[in-house]
Amino acid sequence: MNILLLGYGKMGRTIESIAKSRGHNIVGKINEDNTADLVKYTGGNADVAIEFSQPDAAYENIRYCIENGIPVVSGTTGWLEKKPEIEALCQEKDGTFFYASNFSIGVNLFFKLNEQLAGLMKDFNEYNVDIEEIHHTEKKDAPSGTAITLAEDIIKSIDYKKKWINKPFGKKEDLIINSLREGRVPGTHTVKYSSAVDDIEIKHTAHSREGFAKGAVLVAEWITDKKGVLTMDNFLK
Ligand SMILES: NC(=O)C1=CN([C@@H]2O[C@H](COP(=O)(O)OP(=O)(O)OC[C@H]3O[C@@H](n4cnc5c(N)ncnc54)[C@H](O)[C@@H]3O)[C@@H](O)[C@H]2O)C=CC1
Ligand SMILES: O=C(O)C1=N[C@H](C(=O)O)C[C@H](O)C1
């Protein structure tokens, strides 16, 4: 498979190494210093684009791919207010767009665990729930996309939480996401329910970026013959 990498930073490099180990060709690597080269690529010479860039670049990269017939797998966080526009464009152009806030299989199991725990906790108002996410100091966005997914899934079940906020303190109706930036941490997420008498915690700790990158390559292999707007739920089924 011929893969175009959009974003060749920490994730782009890890994806390159996993893709090559699985027999794929990297036909292009676009970074902030060679964005003009993107016009060289179309669905004719790239089977799929894997897009891990930065919040202010994702929308234009993905739009270019959809308009030029390149199926696109994106994991960039911090740009999601524009995702509905991309989804509409994908439908209009009969393109292929796959987005996940986290491509690791472990985190996707953790998402399911979070949904189930929220379902169990919904009638126990003596507990308060909050989320902590810890990432490396180079991360550009806060809160993490993964923490937002966790928060949205909790709010669906827990009536006393109305919205998430990215501050360490708030009212009971606010689901607090506390974002910490430390050293080179690849990504740690904790969901904690606290009462006066006890705490219940679930936690996912990434040991490296390999889980994210392998998930993105597996999805890229899977989507090349698919159309439409796709998610991890489609892939994991
Ligand atoms: N969904 C997931 O599973 C994961 C998502 N991420 C997200 O992926 C993104 C990238 O993460 P990292 O690789 O750690 O960041 P990074 O900062 O190491 O790399 C980002 C790269 O994007 C490049 N870039 C800037 N403008 C560009 C443009 N217009 N076109 C193409 N490339 C451009 C930069 O030159 C840089 O090399 C972040 O948004 C991060 O939150 C990271 C890990 C897992
Ligand atoms: O920027 C990162 O590094 C990560 N970003 C994603 C996020 O914002 O959730 C996924 C992972 O936690 C690593």
From TrEMBL:
Domain of life: Bacteria
UniProt xrefs under SUPFAM superfamilies: Glyceraldehyde-3-phosphate dehydrogenase-like, C-terminal domain (SSF55347), NAD(P)-binding Rossmann-fold domains (SSF51735)
A single Gene Ontology CC term: cytosol
Domain Dihydrodipicolinate reductase N-terminal span(s) in chain numbering: 1-103
Enzyme nomenclature, EC number: 1.17.1.8
Molecular function as annotated in GO: 4-hydroxy-tetrahydrodipicolinate reductase; NAD binding; NADP binding; oxidoreductase activity, acting on CH or CH2 groups, NAD or NADP as acceptor
Dihydrodipicolinate reductase C-terminal domain: residues covered: 106-236
Recorded family membership: Belongs to the DapB family.
Name listed for the protein in its UniProt record: 4-hydroxy-tetrahydrodipicolinate reductase
Organism in which the protein naturally occurs: Fulvivirga imtechensis AK7
Gene name tied to this protein: dapB
